[in-house]
Amino acid sequence: MSQQNKPDLSQVIAEEFGANATYVEGLLQRFRSNPDLVDESWRSYFSELVGNGAKAAVVTTDGDGAAAAPAPAPLRTPEPKPTPAAPPADAEAIPIRGPALKIVENMESSLHVPTATSERRIPVKLLDENRRIINQHLAENDRGKASYTHLIAFAVLRALEEFPQLNDGYAHVDGTSMRLKRTSVNLGVAIDLTKKDGTRTLLVPNIKNANRLSFSEFLTAYDDVVKRAREGKLQIPDFQGTTVSLTNPGTLGTVASIPRLMEGQSVIIATGAIEYPAEYQAMAPEVISQLGISKAISISSTYDHRIIQGAESGAFLARVHELIIGKHDFYKNIFLNLGIPHAPLRWGLDRNPFFLPEDQVREQTLKEARVIELINAYRVRGHLLADTDPLHALPILYHPELDIENYGLTIWDLDRVFITDGL
């Protein structure tokens, strides 16, 4: 093949890896300087790519990790080509090439996917309190840290057990529309990286068979893929076979987001910033705690309307909501899996004496007395929560005398100040 007939390698990589093409191009430059600087799977791919000047074959996998043929492209009616337009006199026309061009093509291609979006606002008070307990346990055992995204992603995976159709795919084969039933969830996680020149790039590798992992295993798998992304050690399979994606623009302060859904996936979940409702953000923390106001997060589900209906997407988000506020033993199972030797906190209605019709002074005095009782219970019985079983051979026991609910207290009381006679 003559040099002028060889395809542009940047374009080839862009077509194969889409939004992850910038990362792959960086590996290609490393390979050209010294092939030993990249892993064996990348060496094989780049050797064929550079040697033949053509697209190297990449084995794709289905949802269960087995080799599978590439999904056929949906049949489309050719669109009329736009009439070329001259740029404005005060603008410079710069051709879009390589990975940036592939992003343009992906966005244009995504326009053919008929989507709709469901959105839900979920309080995170219980998530925040139980996450604090989880991280205290993980720190004591030198096992890293659980983020909000870890727990929300795990809630999404548990909700998919009740709504597996959201993990299906769509294909158009021989003129027939087909639903692709999948048994494994390959969860794509968005990772925002800052390059040396200050520019940012987004990678979306996936965690294979994420729905079959326990919480402890999921923590390890999630942290592993993020670590390898930051170290430039992702492999070709890390980008293949994504069935559901989770993106988190909330890390940048975005309250809500409706991301584009790429072909091949049926749903993408987006989470916004965790913060108090805007109308309460000027209030003092003491006032917010007295009112029993929780920080909240917006979660959206953008889905392929050809195979998922709005009621299914809405019910799926309702299930995620239920899990985040502790229903269906969500936190109980996480605590058991991690070996945390006591029960998690539970969601409860706030009964603040200041807003009740009864004798407010009397009710507040009773609550303060119960707080003193709880403090004394921890002084006398607190050792029952100590982790004295390194082999985890004994069952985790529930100790009601150390449960705040047995004293008429709830998670909303944890941020409040009580008179305890110096205790």
Any key phrases for this structure?
two-stranded antiparallel sheet, six-stranded mixed beta sheet, 423 residues, 13% strand, alpha+beta
Q: Structural class, judged by helices and strands? A: alpha+beta
Distance between the termini: 84 Å
Number of helices: 11
Low-confidence stretches: 1-5, 65-78
H-E order: HHHEEHEHHEEEEEEHEEHEHHH
Shape label: elongated
Explained architecture:
It is a single chain. The chain is an alpha+beta fold and 423 residues long. It is built from 11 helices and 12 strands. The chain has helices spanning 9-17, 21-33, 40-52, 98-110, 125-140, 148-162, 215-230, 285-291, 310-324, 330-338, 360-381; strands at 60-61, 67-68, 115-123, 169-173, 176-180, 187-189, 191-194, 200-203, 206-207, 244-247, 267-271, 296-304. Strands 3-12-11-10-6-9 form a 6-stranded mixed β-sheet. The chain has a two-stranded antiparallel sheet with strand order 1-2. A hairpin with a 2-residue loop joins β4 and β5. α1 crosses α2 (21-33), α1 (9-17) packs parallel to α4 (98-110) and α6 (148-162) packs across α9 (310-324).
Gist of the model:
This protein is of the alpha+beta class and 423 residues long. The chain has 11 helices and 12 strands.
Indicate the topology:
Blueprint: H1 9-17, H2 21-33, H3 40-52, E1 60-61, E2 67-68, H4 98-110, E3 115-123, H5 125-140, H6 148-162, E4 169-173, E5 176-180, E6 187-189, E7 191-194, E8 200-203, E9 206-207, H7 215-230, E10 244-247, E11 267-271, H8 285-291, E12 296-304, H9 310-324, H10 330-338, H11 360-381
Helix pairs in contact: 1-2, 1-4, 6-9
